[in-house]
Amino acid sequence: MTSVSMRRVGEVPDKELLARHSEGDPHAFAELVHRHRDRMWAVALRTLGDPEEAADALQDACLSAFRAAGRFRGDAAVTTWLHRIVVNACLDRVRRKSVRPATPMGDDATFDAVAPKMPDPTDAHGVSLDVRTALEQLPYEQRAALVLVDMMGYSVDDAAQVMEVPPGTIKSRCARGRARLAPLLVHHRNRREPRNVGGVEGGGMPK
Fold it and tell me: What angle do CA 157, 169, 112 make, to 5 degrees?
């Protein structure tokens, strides 16, 4: 028995767990999901806004990841790969439900010209419901970008890897999404100073 196989499953790196799963290890994939399920669930719930839909999307994503593990090439972190599958599963559910997207804003729409960054949805239950409702009015691509960058703390570059688009596209989607959210959440601005989740200038997007 090799030193690798003797290690406890909990000590094995993500990429090795994925490789073990592809080779037939019956426990490797369960451990991988156990490690990352909470953040995968958060991405699904915040993107779809409906717990039942999010649960179904997460189940779809886990099944897709289980089947696609052998095609993982290691060009990104396993977490990025998993979150990409979750985002795609959410998009599939949106498409199947034929959700009518909101009218996109023009490329020149900028968040800074309208209002500060949206409040953290975890601060209070009422704010969370308002943000969830507001997010549902955004086109899916803007919603997903904001969830990854503003709520999950992804850098623009990492979010671009998850959504498989250029970083500039993520910046544009975030700016346009924030601009659209601002008037929907203006009453929270009047009650308190919104938190800047990203903590940087230029509309609050991480670099």
Answer: 95
